[in-house]
Amino acid sequence: MFSVAERLEMLRSLTGHLENVRIDTFDGLMVQYAKSMEAICILRGIRAISDYEYELQMALMNRKLEPTLETVFMMPADKYSYVSSRLVREVAQAGGPVKGLVPEIVEQRLREKLDPAYKFHDEPEEISPQIAAGREKKRKKRA
Predict the structure, then answer these.
(1) Residue 60 half-sphere exposure toward CB, CA atoms < 13 A
(2) Are 87 and 59 in contact (CB under 8 A)?
(3) What is the pLDDT of residue 120?
(4) Integer Cα distance of 114 and 94 in angstroms
(5) What is the residue range of 33's domain?
(6) Which residue from 18, 108, 122, 125 puts its CA 20 to 30 A from 9's CA?
(7) DSSP string over 27-83
């Protein structure tokens, strides 16, 4: 949904105050990039067993390609264990709220990209006076 440049911009704005964090991109194999940066460890997040299976396979291949590079897995707090970019994107595209699931800047950028979906969700629907009168008449009949 976001271009690499947009992701970099958001990440840099979120981590700009952290002196020991650098945001970068690369092409090719992660092990080659890590070696070029003189890294000794790759940090990966795991939410579920399905993530673990994929990440373990990746870590073993990375170890085969570069035996000196270690992989460390981290698990999120319980309250974030179900959050994925796919689910956030689907909720946002349907006009649902993503507050608390992503940083505020990401929520704002989602709103900008998906403006019609959010307008549908956040703003009352505009209807003609005739339709409003018809709805009111039906409501009174039922009451």
Answers:
(1) 6
(2) no
(3) 47
(4) 9
(5) 4-142
(6) 122
(7) -S-HHHHHHHTT--EEEEE--SHHHHHHHHHHHHHHHHH-TT-EEEEE---GGGTT-
Number of domains into which the chain is organized: 1
Q: What is the DSSP code (8-state) at residue 18?
A: -
Tokens of 87: 């689910």
Residue with tokens 């209807």: 127
- The C-alpha atoms of residue 9 and residue 46 are separated, in whole angstroms, by 25
Distance CA 13, CA 85 (A): 19
Three-state SS at 99: strand
Longest dimension (CA), the chain: 77
Residue 17: which CATH number?
A: 3.40.50.620
pLDDT digit string (tens) for 101-143?
999 999 999 988 887 655 545 444 455 566 666 666 666 666 6
pTM: 0.69
Predicted confidence at residue 80, as pLDDT, reads 84
Residue 107: what pLDDT?
92
